[in-house]
Amino acid sequence: MIGLGFVRPSFADQAIVINEVLVHPSSSHKEWVEFYLPDGTSVTNDWIDDDSDFINDDGGSSKKLITAVVAGSDAQHVVFELSSAMFNNDGDTLALFSPEGQLIDQYHYNKDPGVDIAMGRTPDATGGFSMLTNATRGSANSAPKPTTAPTPGPTTKPTKEPKATSAPTTTKNSVDTAIDNPNSSLNADDETTVNSQDISESEGSVSAQPTSILGVATKAGEQRKAKPTPQVMVKGSTTGTLPFLLTSFGGLFLLSCGILLYLKKKGIWN
Q1: Non-local CB neighbours of 49 within 8 Å, separated by 6+ positions
Q2: Cβ-count burial of 176 within 10 angstroms (0-12 exposed, 13-18 middle, 19+ buried)?
Q3: Which of 65, 89, 128, 213 could make an SS bond with 24 (beta carbons 3.0 to 4.6 A apart)?
């Protein structure tokens, strides 16, 4: 800045860059910015800010003058430790201005890197920014932090469809019972069929076993007839009384006619 009466020395290969930064320190640490300096350059009297507008200073904090730096492991790495917090954890801009207000370098991040996680260039001075495996304040940057692959979720297994329950089959014993006892619970109205494979040929009884019962086709295509139920005369029932009376009256009528003919023939009845 002209008002300060300071003019930076000019170097043809000058390329000062922001090399590493810690924006979310733990409670016992402070924010800091590391710069990579070409030989013979310096950041003293430069400005660090949280926006890229030097005049209006639209960021949340006022720009800070770099008055002193901490030397690193070599002349190219120096660190400026901020006396108070300047950068937002979840996203902000780092801007480096010359004493005259010229933008030298800047870096913008849009998410929180995490507590005490440094962001820096890989390789130093020329590489792009990424979260680093280790904070390397004042020395060459470490390798980028590996990206965590998403954990695959469990595969949902399809629900098995229930298998249809097979219809019960009538065994050989139930068939024999139905044949010997027509009034049993197994009748022609039942939808249960006889499994012909269950009535297997065993010990000479092949021809004796039917393949179905009561109204269903039997062996050799024959139709099995149900046994008629005998009728039983019940005392007092009108079912057999009328024929008996007619027969009795008919007999008496014929007998009476015979007697009259006999008497008339003998001249006894005129």
Answers
A1: 57, 59, 61, 63, 64, 95, 97
A2: middle
A3: 89
Distances (CA, A) of 96 to 38, 107, 143, 234, 267: 15, 9, 24, 125, 169
Facing residues of 79 across strands? 34, 70
The per-residue pLDDT for range 215-240, each reduced to its tens digit, is 444 444 445 555 555 554 545 444 56
Look at the pTM and tell me if it is higher than 0.85: no
